[in-house]
Amino acid sequence: MKEKAGKPGWIWYIASRYIFHRRGNSPSSVLAVLGIATGVLSLIVIIAVMNGFQLGFIENILEISSCHLRVENYPLEKTNDALEILRSLPGVNAVLPFREFQALARGRRGGQQAMLVRGVPPDAGKYDAGMVSRLDFEQGMFDLSDPHYVLMGSELSRRLGLRTGDEVILYSINDIFSGGGEGQEADDGAGIEQFTIAGVFRTGFYEFDTGWGFVEIGSAEVFSQTAPVLGIKLKNRFQDRPALELVQRSLAAVPGFDEAKFSSWRDYNKSFFGALRTEKLFMFILVGLIFIVVGLNIFQAQRRAVLERREEIGLLRAIGGGEWAVRFVFVCDGALIGLTGSISGLLAGLLIALNINFFFTALESIVNFFIQLLNVLAGALGFGAAEDFAVFSPAIFYIKEIPSRIIPGEVILICIFGFLSALLAAWYASGRVSRIRPAEVLRYE
Hints:
By secondary structure, this protein is of the alpha+beta class. The chain has 16 helices and ten strands. It folds into two domains: 9-55 and 273-441, no CATH class; 68-264, no CATH class. Helix 2 (27-66) runs antiparallel to helix 11 and helix 2 packs antiparallel against helix 15.
């Protein structure tokens, strides 16, 4: 019975017999499937939560403060010309002029806090909807229709004891250090203005909520005399290099832009974004070690299977089964383990990652139930009560809910890793087939 090219039906038949009609139930195969599934599930959930945190931080920084491209140090009178050109470029999603200055905020009730104030046009929502959408207003709304309105971060407002409708005085930090300022009245000179809080926002990014505010761009001229910065948002931030070249070419014909400064989001916050990328890579590697452990388990199980079936392998080799054909029988076993584990882990991982807050709430409820039982027992014995358990306690973590972001390409890559770990382990384990001599195995049969 020589195997014929193009007719491998007997290989699939033997493989299916080995897989579905094992000698008893093989716990090693079940553990291997569970191991692959656990690894895939863990990686999907961990990477999804990490993506939620990291992409949330990155998008907050790029949408609210940094933009994708910046144009600085250009003639003030050419601002409108530049805006008209930039908003017509392909790939550009939004262009917004803004001014920034450092200020000292002081409320009428006392208390003061340094803050970064950004001056933007009153119709910023029309030209940069992404920025406005990132500001979750707890009080008021995005309203800069009055030159003396200010929008303030929630933590900054709390520290100053202020709410919407309250008055706040902004002192230019530059004027304070140059000898003017704090003792003057609001109308005594430049660098001091009184504002009314029109809205209190929360971004989920602690730095913004504790030290950021927005005013109308004309009001910012009192504090900053330089030309506005042109912040450009792209439809695809990873196309920043060609977009930067396009912006430079488009503005080259406008007088005064030959000495302007052009920069990309990769240039500023470079170390922060690099640290996030490195953190994610190392987490991917550390959790991926699960696949190595599971692969070793599959390797040992397949080696044992080869030894247990020496007589059957010898018989297959004696009737014409080639080394690669017989070896393929055991590889199919490993492939099935990898495929079953990967699909099971994929489904469970997506279920948890898409409902991460529900599962964490359920986990906290279960743990707190047992804590309450222990508290009752401890109270009867005269001991103190333990506090409730929270995975992400608000006292430690500045989050309202756990973010989760699934990137399809990463999920596919994780499943491929799980499948290949089982496939490669089975392939190397089946290498012992080549050392089996049919004559020696069948000599005493």
